[in-house]
């Protein structure tokens, strides 16, 4: 589903150039659940932003479902995001002025889905993440776990083939964190590809494969669970 | 999608009540100011536009070139009209209206009704061809051809005849009988204050006089044929007038005629002399338009400033929306939509506020402006236009800024949104500077206008205008026996003195030539003539600087003495007041043909301002000429003015019981001279106040934002030992610096604008330097008070709380 070749990202200020990603080569197949790990500042979030077309690479290639997307225009990227990618963030990033229902409904609005269909799909996904009873509440009225479940619901409501999760349990206690991870695993089992950045070894064990990064480069890929196989990147 | 935008906009509005209030209040006030001033300006621009084919009508006036300036005189000689009509085929119709030598009050009698009425015009019978006013009764066709006919306005008709059709009824005007032939609809947008029109033939002016090229007594209008070129006509006519010889000076005609489009008469005649039309002032109309624009711009800037300052709070939302697929265009549309919603609410408030305040503005400006959006689709369209213009003006930039946020940056916590340390938010600061420049500019203008208007009202005019009752004599008995009338008036102990003549301060005066001998040659000078009696100087308290006043003790004073003012001493070349005494003068007397009055200067009075301070002092001659004993000034003793008035009324009734007395006090004449300036002063204060208030609303919001943004810094500073005062100064300093820059920009501009304005006055203040200092201090204090409230709030918060929140 995703291939990168020599992907690079450099952050520039007036005086300092920081190489956040340095020639990263990566392939993620459809249906995979991949965790990206590494110390703070190693470039994992930058990688996720590039994969999610939230940021432009400075060099290299990024292929999504067979199409080179590295140099897509802003509009093309927006179109691809709304149709194919769902995002889950550490800080939930729900819109405070919208209710749970309205937050989840938002991607469908941008996709142009008509109202009866929109309502059906929102209710269905809220049911799936077990938050229907709170659908008329505002984000501030929910616990962290509930907010993240809403964020997951919003990420999957338009049934994207890919979910990018940036430390989805970072702001949650272990019980709520496990709930969210179970939810992501379930989605993966139903066929959604998931790429997740995490600091947590516990959460990483939910994935099929862990990519370890250091100083902007992928240094190792290890297969989790029963495959117990380690390869050097 | 739009429902979603609306929902977010509405909820944001409620969530950030303070900011919403500042934005809505600022915009609503700005729009209200704009609407009110806009209505005023629109109304002023409507004069004479209702007249069909008015674009072909021109008023003929004269330019008089003096050494210092060019004066415009609204009246022209009768031969202008005659020549234009007879010799210039471009002219379709010509109309002359004779200037009334008095205030135009006529005694009107119909049945048992008896009243004084203003607005009587004596005109050529072509009046309704040139000014096709709408007729309610009768027909405009040949309506004035009969010299005994009168056409009256509907309002006049209501007062005299009630609601009945008055056509065919008789009416007496100044004891002459007329037949009502028609009733026209009064229009407040007609430049002539007219209640009735009679045929000039009724005055039975000598045909010889109507052939004069020097008798500047007629308001003259021409209606050109379709396609005629007014510029060409004027140049031909100017050439024609140059051929004429002034019968008094026996020199080539010195006036240059000019044409003024009818629709410019109201606004572009402020400086015209002897103009009796309803006049506005284009300078004031322009100034008020600029002020309206200023206030609106200040309100829009508030919005831009607050929206960009607050953008951090919306950044996350932008990030989320972009992440899930919103395009830049969709986001811009959303934020622009929010501004439009806010503007819409402001427009609604502004419309309500305008409706509420318009009656007061109408009363203040003596206008009948209407503001009804439901009955006027044009107005509704205008509001819609205003909504779009203001909405887009205020909302576009913030929308672009917000829509350009990079989701990666904003979702990570605001990177690249706020200005980093040491970086200046140039746009925000520039807008504050601009706002305060406008405010300081307006403050300076308001103070200077106030100073000048106070100067106009309080300047020593060189005579005492207090407690002088003033009226025009009426009836043959009074005119013929004016000396007895005067003696009777003086019999009451409350009457200090009485003067009868023509040419009292604040009233009409006459301009005419005077002949003197210079280097053995007889030369003519144009001077103002005040026809006085022996008590004029005493009644007005004029000061003699040389010689003596006119006195009964000198029998020759009646026919051979002149008193002149200091300006006449200078302009006639006499050197000093002392040297002026004994100088010979000649005056071609009025009425009696070729009668020359010969006399000499017996006294010189100190210059006194008998006209408004717009006009420079004229060389003036005081002389006895009983033929012009038309007006009476009665100086009362301050102890019992009411008793004095009662006595005057009694004496009046003894002489002319058939005429009711109409009087006023001389100081009132001077009050009305500066009516427009008084109004400008008040409007300027009100709208300057509004501009400052709106600007401060924005500053208040920005200060709140700055205090919020710097909470952490304030917390750390406090922990390190900073005192409240140093924190307040830290936050206020930034804004005060901007106010100072604003003042530096505004001061020269205001100085320039005010100097231009003051040039219209012959007598004016020098712009005092302290005005600039005061304006800066005022703006600074207001800004400091606005900011320090927020600064103080931030400085007194618990620092631990501030740091914990970070």
TrEMBL record, chain A:
<dbReference type="GO" id="GO:0022857">
    <property type="term" value="F:transmembrane transporter activity"/>
</dbReference>
<feature type="domain" description="ABC transporter">
    <location>
        <begin position="2"/>
        <end position="232"/>
    </location>
</feature>
<dbReference type="GO" id="GO:0016887">
    <property type="term" value="F:ATP hydrolysis activity"/>
</dbReference>
<dbReference type="InterPro" id="IPR017911">
    <property type="entry name" value="MacB-like_ATP-bd"/>
</dbReference>
<keyword id="KW-0813">Transport</keyword>
<dbReference type="Pfam" id="PF00005">
    <property type="entry name" value="ABC_tran"/>
</dbReference>
<dbReference type="InterPro" id="IPR027417">
    <property type="entry name" value="P-loop_NTPase"/>
</dbReference>
<keyword id="KW-0547">Nucleotide-binding</keyword>
<keyword id="KW-0067">ATP-binding</keyword>
<protein>
    <submittedName>
        <fullName>ABC transporter ATP-binding protein</fullName>
    </submittedName>
</protein>
<dbReference type="GO" id="GO:0098796">
    <property type="term" value="C:membrane protein complex"/>
</dbReference>
<dbReference type="GO" id="GO:0005524">
    <property type="term" value="F:ATP binding"/>
</dbReference>
<comment type="similarity">
    <text>Belongs to the ABC transporter superfamily. Macrolide exporter (TC 3.A.1.122) family.</text>
</comment>
<dbReference type="InterPro" id="IPR003593">
    <property type="entry name" value="AAA+_ATPase"/>
</dbReference>
<dbReference type="InterPro" id="IPR017871">
    <property type="entry name" value="ABC_transporter-like_CS"/>
</dbReference>
<dbReference type="InterPro" id="IPR003439">
    <property type="entry name" value="ABC_transporter-like_ATP-bd"/>
</dbReference>
<dbReference type="InterPro" id="IPR015854">
    <property type="entry name" value="ABC_transpr_LolD-like"/>
</dbReference>
<dbReference type="GO" id="GO:0005886">
    <property type="term" value="C:plasma membrane"/>
</dbReference>
UniProtKB/TrEMBL annotation, chain B:
<dbReference type="Pfam" id="PF12704">
    <property type="entry name" value="MacB_PCD"/>
</dbReference>
<dbReference type="Pfam" id="PF02687">
    <property type="entry name" value="FtsX"/>
</dbReference>
<feature type="transmembrane region" description="Helical">
    <location>
        <begin position="378"/>
        <end position="405"/>
    </location>
</feature>
<keyword id="KW-1133">Transmembrane helix</keyword>
<feature type="transmembrane region" description="Helical">
    <location>
        <begin position="769"/>
        <end position="792"/>
    </location>
</feature>
<feature type="transmembrane region" description="Helical">
    <location>
        <begin position="426"/>
        <end position="450"/>
    </location>
</feature>
<feature type="transmembrane region" description="Helical">
    <location>
        <begin position="331"/>
        <end position="358"/>
    </location>
</feature>
<feature type="transmembrane region" description="Helical">
    <location>
        <begin position="735"/>
        <end position="754"/>
    </location>
</feature>
<protein>
    <submittedName>
        <fullName>FtsX-like permease family protein</fullName>
    </submittedName>
</protein>
<dbReference type="GO" id="GO:0022857">
    <property type="term" value="F:transmembrane transporter activity"/>
</dbReference>
<keyword id="KW-0472">Membrane</keyword>
<feature type="transmembrane region" description="Helical">
    <location>
        <begin position="284"/>
        <end position="304"/>
    </location>
</feature>
<dbReference type="InterPro" id="IPR050250">
    <property type="entry name" value="Macrolide_Exporter_MacB"/>
</dbReference>
<feature type="transmembrane region" description="Helical">
    <location>
        <begin position="683"/>
        <end position="707"/>
    </location>
</feature>
<keyword id="KW-0812">Transmembrane</keyword>
<keyword id="KW-1003">Cell membrane</keyword>
<dbReference type="InterPro" id="IPR025857">
    <property type="entry name" value="MacB_PCD"/>
</dbReference>
<feature type="domain" description="MacB-like periplasmic core">
    <location>
        <begin position="20"/>
        <end position="236"/>
    </location>
</feature>
<dbReference type="GO" id="GO:0005886">
    <property type="term" value="C:plasma membrane"/>
</dbReference>
<feature type="transmembrane region" description="Helical">
    <location>
        <begin position="21"/>
        <end position="42"/>
    </location>
</feature>
<feature type="domain" description="ABC3 transporter permease C-terminal">
    <location>
        <begin position="290"/>
        <end position="406"/>
    </location>
</feature>
<feature type="domain" description="ABC3 transporter permease C-terminal">
    <location>
        <begin position="686"/>
        <end position="799"/>
    </location>
</feature>
């Amino acid at each position: 589903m995703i291939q990168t070749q020599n992907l690079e990202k450099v952050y520039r200020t007036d005086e300092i150039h920081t190489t956040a990603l340095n020639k990263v080569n990566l392939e993620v197949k459809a249906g995979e659940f991949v965790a990206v790990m590494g110390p703070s500042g190693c470039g994992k979030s930058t990688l996720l932003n590039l994969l999610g077309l939230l940021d432009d690479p400075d060099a290299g290639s990024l292929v999504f479902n067979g199409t080179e997307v590295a140099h897509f225009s802003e509009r093309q990227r927006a179109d691809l995001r709304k149709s194919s990618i769902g995002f889950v963030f550490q800080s939930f990033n729900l819109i405070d002025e919208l209710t749970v229902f309205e937050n989840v409904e938002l991607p469908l609005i941008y996709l142009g889905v008509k109202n009866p269909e929109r309502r059906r799909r929102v209710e269905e996904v809220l049911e799936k993440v077990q938050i229907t009873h709170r659908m008329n509440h505002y984000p501030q009225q929910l616990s962290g776990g509930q907010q993240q479940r809403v964020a997951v619901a919003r990420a999957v409501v338009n049934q994207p083939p890919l979910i990018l999760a940036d430390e989805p349990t970072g702001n949650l206690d272990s019980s709520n964190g496990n709930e969210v991870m179970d939810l992501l695993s379930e989605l993966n089992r139903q066929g959604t590809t998931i790429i997740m950045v995490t600091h947590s070894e516990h959460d990483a064990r939910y994935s099929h494969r862990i990519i370890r990064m250091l100083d902007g480069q992928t240094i190792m890929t290890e297969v989790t669970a029963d495959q117990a196989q380690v390869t050097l990147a | 999608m739009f429902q979603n935008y609306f929902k977010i906009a509405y909820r944001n509005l409620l969530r950030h009540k303070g900011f919403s209030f500042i934005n809505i209040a600022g915009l609503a006030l700005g729009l209200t100011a704009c609407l009110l001033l806009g209505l005023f300006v629109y109304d002023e621009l409507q004069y004479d536009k209702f007249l069909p084919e008015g674009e072909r009508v021109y008023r003929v006036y004269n330019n008089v070139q003096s050494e210092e300036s060019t004066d415009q005189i609204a009246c022209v000689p009768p031969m202008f009209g005659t020549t234009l009509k007879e010799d210039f085929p471009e002219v379709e119709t010509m109309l002359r209206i004779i200037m009334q030598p008095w205030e135009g009050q006529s005694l009107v009698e119909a049945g048992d009704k008896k009243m004084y009425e203003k607005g009587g015009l004596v005109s050529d019978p072509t009046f309704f061809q040139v000014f096709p006013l709408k007729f309610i009764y009768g027909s405009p066709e040949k309506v004035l051809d009969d010299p005994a006919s009168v056409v009256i306005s509907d309002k006049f008709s209501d007062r005299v005849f009630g609601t009945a059709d008055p056509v065919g009824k008789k009416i007496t005007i100044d004891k002459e009988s007329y037949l009502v032939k028609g009733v026209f609809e009064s229009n407040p947008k007609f430049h002539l204050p007219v209640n009735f029109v009679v045929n000039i033939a009724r005055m039975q002016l000598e045909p010889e006089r109507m052939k004069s090229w020097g008798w500047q007594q007629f308001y003259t209008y021409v209606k050109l044929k379709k396609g005629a070129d007014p510029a060409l006509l004027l140049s031909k006519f100017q050439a024609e007038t140059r051929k004429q010889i002034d019968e008094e000076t026996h020199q080539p005609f010195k006036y240059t005629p000019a044409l003024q489009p009818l629709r410019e008469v109201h606004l572009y005649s402020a400086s015209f002399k002897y103009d009796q039309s309803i006049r506005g002032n284009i300078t004031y109309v322009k100034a008020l338009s600029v002020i309206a624009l200023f206030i609106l711009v200040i309100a829009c800037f508030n919005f831009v400033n607050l929206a960009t300052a607050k953008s951090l709070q919306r950044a996350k939302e932008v990030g989320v929306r972009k992440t899930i697929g919103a395009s830049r265009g969709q986001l811009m549309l959303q934020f622009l939509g929010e501004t439009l919603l806010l503007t819409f609410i402001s427009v609604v408030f502004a419309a309500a506020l305008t409706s509420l305040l318009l009656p007061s503005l109408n009363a203040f400006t003596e206008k009948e402006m209407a503001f009804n959006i439901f009955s006027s689709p044009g107005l509704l369209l205008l509001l819609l236009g205003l909504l779009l213009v203001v909405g887009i003006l205020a909302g576009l930039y913030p929308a672009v800024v917000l829509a350009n946020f990079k989701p990666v940056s904003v979702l990570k916590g605001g990177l690249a949104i706020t200005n980093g340390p040491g970086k200046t938010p140039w746009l925000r600061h520039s807008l504050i500077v601009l706002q305060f420049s406008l405010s300081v500019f307006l403050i300076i203008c308001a103070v200077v206008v106030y100073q000048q208007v106070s100067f106009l009202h309080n300047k020593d005019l060189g005579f005492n205008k207090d407690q002088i009752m003033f009226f025009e004599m009426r009836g043959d008995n009074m005119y013929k026996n004016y000396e007895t009338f005067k003696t009777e008036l003086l019999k009451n102990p409350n009457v200090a003195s009485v003067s009868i003549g023509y040419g009292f301060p604040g009233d009409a005066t006459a301009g005419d030539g005077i002949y003197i001998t210079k280097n053995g040659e007889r030369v003519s000078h144009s001077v103002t003539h005040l026809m006085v009696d022996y008590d004029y100087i005493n009644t007005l308290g004029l000061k003699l600087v040389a010689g003596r006043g006119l006195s009964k003790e000198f029998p020759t004073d009646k026919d051979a003495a002149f008193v002149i003012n200091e300006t006449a001493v200078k302009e006639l070349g006499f050197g000093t007041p002392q040297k002026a005494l004994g100088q010979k003068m000649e005056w071609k007397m009025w009425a009696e043909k070729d009668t020359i009055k010969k006399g000499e200067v017996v006294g010189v009075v100190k210059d006194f301002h008998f006209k408004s301070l717009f006009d420079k002092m004229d060389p003036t001659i005081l002389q006895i000429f009983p033929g012009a004993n038309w007006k009476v000034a009665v100086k009362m003793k301050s102890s019992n003015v009411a008793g004095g008035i009662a006595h005057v009324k009694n004496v009046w009734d003894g002489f002319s019981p058939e005429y009711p007395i109409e009087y006023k006090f001389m100081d009132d004449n001077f009050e009305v001279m500066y009516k427009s300036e008084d109004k400008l002063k008040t409007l300027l204060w009100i709208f300057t106040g509004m501009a400052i208030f709106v600007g401060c609303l924005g500053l208040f919001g920005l200060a709140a934002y700055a205090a919020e943004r710097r909470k952490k810094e304030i917390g750390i500073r406090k922990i390190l030992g900073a005192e409240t005062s140093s924190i307040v100064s830290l936050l206020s300093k930034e804004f005060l610096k901007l106010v100072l820059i604003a003042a530096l920009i505004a001061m020269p501009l205001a100085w320039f604008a005010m100097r231009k304005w003051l040039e219209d006055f012959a007598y004016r203040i020098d712009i005092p330097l302290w005005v600039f200092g005061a304006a800066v201090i005022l703006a600074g204090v207001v800004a400091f008070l606005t900011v320090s409230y927020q600064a103080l709030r931030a400085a007194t918060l618990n620092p631990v709380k501030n740091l914990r929140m970070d």
